[in-house]
Amino acid sequence: MLVTDSAHPRAARQPRRGRRARAIPLALGTALMAAAILASACGQTLTTRARTAAGVTVTFADQAGSVPTYILPLMSAADASDANLGPFQLLMYRPLYWSGAHGSPAIDGAESLADPPVYSNGGRTVSITLKRAVWSDGRPVTTRDVQFWMDLLRADPTAYWAYVPGQFPDNVVAMSYPTADRFTITFNRAYNHQFLLGDELTQIIPLPQHAWDRTSRTGSVGGWDRTARGARAVYHFLDAQSKQVGTYATDPLWQVVDGPWRLHGYEAATGYAVLTPNRRYQGPGRARIAALAEVPYTSDTAELDALRAGQLDYGYLPYEDVNQIAALRARGFSIHPWTTWAYNYIPINFANPVVGPAFAQLYVRQAMQHLVDQPAYITSLFHGLAYPDYTLLPSRPPSPLVSAAANRDPYPYSVGAAVALLTAHGWRRGPGGVQTCVRPGIGPTACGRGVRAGLRLSFGLEYADGIVSVGEEAQALRSAFVRAGIDLTLRPAPLATVFSDTFVPCDRHRQGSCAWALGYWGNGWNWSPEGYPDASQTFGVGGSVNSGYYSDPTAQRLLQATVTGSGLTPLRRLEVYLAQDVPVLWMPLSYYQLSVVTSRLRGTQPQDPFLNIYPEQWRWA
Predict the structure, then answer these.
(1) Element (H, E) at 581
(2) CB under 8 A, 24+ apart: contacts of 603-606
């Protein structure tokens, strides 16, 4: 499922807009706040972290420009971001099944609220038994809380960030709740078990029906969710309250949690949050620190200054400051690259009215991929702190879902190979040295269907300005393209502009709306919290974020097989095929961040590929 800041209903595989995107200025320097002095979410006093006999407040740095802005764990796409998920909502509200196990993208049974699902009825019915868990007010977590979540979701699934038409919850034909700890879901057909568990059942987050099932602040708690009209009213109330960020720490609604942490203080003006242990939490790990302070910064520079000053326990090192690694280690810090379950690409616009027909030719896409020098980018642009990516699942972290064949580069960097492909299919360098179609038509030595005589391989790359590494990649790409005779015009623009221009499918019926050719946001996409990824929205016909209108019959069959077939073979076949068919230009992945952790803080490793954190497992040495 995609996680994004876009307003599209299925924008879930989010561009990692933390370390390198600086779109939201914050009014906070490097001052820190002690948990002991927090009295309310507004007007909180900022001071230096205190270590007292009551325990330690551990300080954790939010990415610059990235703060929590939505607390209800039933978000729209506009609110779905890394900042709202792992280091905020999921500390307080636990999903039915937890994605991320010991640094891998697997399901963690110990962290999950339910036992493994049991299948029957030819695989169409799933029976699920809840483990023993309680809310922070002492009430048990029951199937009524699961039903509450489902009722709110089904009242308007299009408002949910992870919604895909035809999938969850559209494919649910019946649900029953026979006991307080067991419920069943019957689907419209049998699905791949890994897909159901890793993609669909992970979406369910039990919500405290006994505290939240109300339609107004003064209204009584009741069974309002049992009707579609009532469920919509409840959701609208909770959504409105979730937008009141200044009341997060004082609103009784958000104090009823089942996760290991509860919100103790939140500064609305800055996004500074302090969480304290939920002493009724019954999952793994009993908190051994007094509080967790999540500290936002106006810039990477301010965050690095705080590290140097000893004001942070768990921060990050900006890539441009990697020469500071030795100095930080001398100060007692350790450095840990944070690998994510992600992929990175440049979308290709097959709907472009001029060069779209050329992009539709596989050999043209193969030639362009031959011009992406991933090893050089990793070495020279990312200082070795990145790794190659050739398909929809990354080579890191290790996972049985990833095919070994999919992690071998099918089109290694070679200007000569790119030129040879174009020459063999009827292209010659014309005026200005630009490749021009001189042999139109179909056939093994012709330019291909729809490519007119005289068409020049000349188009633009719109990319996110202000992100150093993205600009450097764009310049390197242009240099290689020009050497091969492809005229690539660079068009820098604000990240938000590039995102809006190239993220969702353009309107082919509106003149000029499909004029872009290549687009690059440069931050990669997290499969969050999708342990078994469904790529249909990105590469499927009609997919909500298939912005380039990629359409291939074999890919469609393989996409469907990953959902309805059995085992891991369909997914592995899809990985290999998408690497070979080049629906997008595959780009290297940098680490999410270089985490800098004080040597006195133990239990932080390995880091979670879904960007979750586990402060209940940390300890102060």
Answers:
(1) helix 569-581
(2) 604/314, 604/336, 605/103, 605/336, 606/102, 606/103
Computed on alpha carbons and rounded to an integer, the radius of gyration of the chain in Å comes to 25
Contact 613, 91 (CB under 8 A): yes
CATH number of the domain bearing residue 393? 3.10.105.10
**What pLDDT is attached to residue 298?**
86
| Alpha carbon distance 176, 188 (integer Å) | 15
> Is residue 544 very low, low, confident or very high in pLDDT (cuts 50, 70, 90)?
confident
Position 312 pLDDT exceeds 90: yes
Alpha-carbon distance 589 to 345, whole Å?
9
Determine if residue 524 is left, alpha or beta; phi over 0 gives left, psi from -120 to 50 gives alpha, anything else beta.
left
Q: Which of 378, 411, 353, 424 is nearest to 582 (CA)?
A: 411
Among 492, 456, 459, smallest CA distance to 474 is for 492
371 in a structural domain: yes
Number of compact structural domains in the chain:
2
Lowest mean pLDDT among 337-341, 370-374, 510-514: 510-514
* CATH code of the domain in which 80 resides: 3.90.76.10
Q: Residue 134: which domain range?
A: 72-244
Instruction: Decide: helix, strand or coil at residue 125.
Output: strand
75-110: pLDDT as tens digits: 987 788 888 988 999 999 999 999 998 999 999 999
Average pLDDT over residues 607-615: 95
